[in-house]
Design a protein that fits this description.
This protein is of the alpha/beta class. Helix content is about 40%, strand content about 25%.
């Protein structure tokens, strides 16, 4: 039994006329008759009664019809799904992201992508940059949004955003109303900072900046998330240097003051294994196109 047999059967069952059915199928009557005979031989039962009055379904044909229609519909659905996946119109992407990207471009990228590709599903996991690199290397993520310059060989990247660091102070702090401050004004303060294991690049960068300003910061809190750093500071328990985008978190009890001597910027990169954006990886290519389009707007 082949799908062409089922197609001939269902059209003839609808028309109950060999001439009209053959016309719909773009064939002549003899091949249509042959297909029906082959199907009946495969099924082991007569599906049509043929006589001088015309064509009618037998009881076996009536029982077979809904199953034949269902098989054809399943085949059509499988074909559409395979085509959509191949063209990047359907499928699933596994994506990692560092939390601060929620305040720097990722939500808009997700909205734009969802509107353009409603059949593509995104499975998102919040992970540190270090954790994402491990998952990417082991192909457990298709792409990630990371804050690191330590990119393994064999990976490509798009710069998504670049933002300054700013001093983060409790709103009750004596320097809270300053228009700008130099880093040495924070000497002797208790610092909240992201853990080195989570973000080694920026942990070390902050310590180096403080050393250049002539002091070693007292690390009162080493935390897993930048938002946790801001939360601790909001409680009046320290100060810190954080990416400027965290102002969008809207936490009460903190102020953000620009630095007189800016640190190197806090960069976000979209990272994926080189070559996987090929057309054979349609979903990934479609997502990267949206990221590339949005990147200049979020930088």
């Amino acid at each position: 039994m082949e799908f062409r047999h089922l197609r001939c059967f269902t059209v003839l069952a609808e028309e109950l006329h060999f001439g009209r059915a053959a016309q719909r199928l773009a064939m002549t009557q003899p091949p249509l008759s042959l297909n029906i005979q082959q199907l009946e031989a495969s099924v082991g039962a007569r599906l049509f009664e043929r006589n001088s009055r015309g064509v009618a379904l037998t009881a076996a044909g009536q029982a077979f019809l809904p199953r034949a229609l269902a098989l054809l519909e399943q085949a059509a659905l499988a074909t559409r799904e395979a085509r959509d996946v191949g063209q990047g119109l359907a499928g699933q992407l596994h994506m990692g992201f560092a939390g601060t990207v929620l305040y720097r471009g990722l939500p808009q990228v997700l909205r734009d992508f969802g509107a353009a590709h409603p059949k593509l599903r995104l499975a998102l996991r919040e992970l540190s940059s270090s954790e994402q690199l491990v998952e990417l290397v082991h192909d457990r993520l298709d792409l990630g949004f990371v804050h690191t310059t330590r990119v393994p060989a064999g990976f490509s990247q798009i710069l998504v955003s670049s933002q300054p660091f700013t001093a983060c102070l409790p709103s009750s702090h004596p320097l809270a109303n300053a228009k700008v401050l130099s880093l040495d004004q924070l000497k002797g303060e208790a610092f909240a900072i992201v853990m080195r294991a989570v973000s080694p690049d920026y942990h070390d960068r902050i310590l180096a900046a403080c050393a250049d300003a002539g002091f070693e910061p007292s690390l009162a809190f080493e935390l897993r998330h930048w938002l946790s750093v801001v939360s601790v500071i909001a409680q009046g328990l320290g100060v810190g240097l954080v990416p400027a985008a965290l102002q969008q978190a809207g936490l009460p009890g903190v102020v953000f003051v620009p630095l007189a001597q800016p640190l190197a910027p806090y960069d976000t990169h979209c990272l994926w294994r080189t070559g996987r954006d090929h057309t054979a990886q349609g979903a990934l290519g479609a997502f990267l196109a949206v990221v590339q389009k949005a990147a200049p707007l979020t930088a």
